[in-house]
Amino acid sequence: MQLNRYIDHTILKPTTTLEDIKKLCMEAVEYDFAAVCVPPPFVKLAKSFVGSTHTKTATVIGFPFGYSAIEAKVAESVLAIIDEADELDMVANILAIRNGDWAYLEKEIATIMPIIRNKQRVIKVIIESGILLEEEIIRCCELYARHGVDFVKTSTGYAEKGASVEAVQLMRKHLPANIQIKASGGIRTFAFAEELVNAGATRIGASASVELMQQALQ
């Protein structure tokens, strides 16, 4: 398994510095990671560092709690695209999920998708699976499958529970084959990353990416 091509090398701390972004991007290019995932203000900088390599530039929308207004997520998405982000990891409105407001969630994704598709970008919808009931995860899979998102993503890494093999297996079972799964949140060992890939994840979001690669080579 070429783990490097599964990895979104990630830094999203509010204390992130310019040097952190440079280091992240240089590591991503060195290891040929799938993408770097950076805070919105650093998209342009990250894009300049990864240049014309195979590594894509990703950023987050509505991060980390997802309860930004739809209009705010639209604005964030447009700005990310202007700054040349290739991939957008959008946090679904977790409040709406937990309160069963599926009409709101339908409106949210229906508003965002034309922007993404018009500019031929990739969207990953984060559902925070670690704090959802099984039936809520299934309902999310059904909803986002209908709208043809590129990925459903397990976690932000900011909730009390991140990725799990069980959540990835459940998502894979209830998503069509063309919709991918990104596992993120608490992935610090190669063994766990491998388990998640075997369960159906096609991307791994991690800040410990270099350590994962070093473990893979042991």
From TrEMBL:
Q: Which residues form the active site?
A: D89 (proton donor/acceptor), K153 (schiff-base intermediate with acetaldehyde), K182 (proton donor/acceptor)
Know the name of this protein? Deoxyribose-phosphate aldolase
Where are the coiled-coil regions?
A: none
> What is catalyzed by this enzyme?
2-deoxy-D-ribose 5-phosphate = D-glyceraldehyde 3-phosphate + acetaldehyde
What role does it play?
A: Catalyzes a reversible aldol reaction between acetaldehyde and D-glyceraldehyde 3-phosphate to generate 2-deoxy-D-ribose 5-phosphate.
Could you tell me the Gene Ontology terms of the biological process aspect for this record? 2-deoxyribose 1-phosphate catabolic process; carbohydrate catabolic process; deoxyribonucleotide catabolic process
Task: Drop me one GO molecular function for this one.
Answer: deoxyribose-phosphate aldolase activity
Query: Source gene?
Result: deoC
The family database entries (PANTHER family) matched by this protein are listed as:
DEOXYRIBOSE-PHOSPHATE ALDOLASE
Assigned protein family: Belongs to the DeoC/FbaB aldolase family. DeoC type 1 subfamily.
Q: Please provide the record's keywords in A-Z order.
A: Cytoplasm, Lyase, Schiff base
Q: In which pathway does it act?
A: Carbohydrate degradation; 2-deoxy-D-ribose 1-phosphate degradation; D-glyceraldehyde 3-phosphate and acetaldehyde from 2-deoxy-alpha-D-ribose 1-phosphate: step 2/2
- Mention any one GO cellular component term assigned to this protein in its UniProt record: cytoplasm
Organism annotation: Chitinophaga cymbidii
Q: What is its EC number?
A: 4.1.2.4
Record localization: Cytoplasm
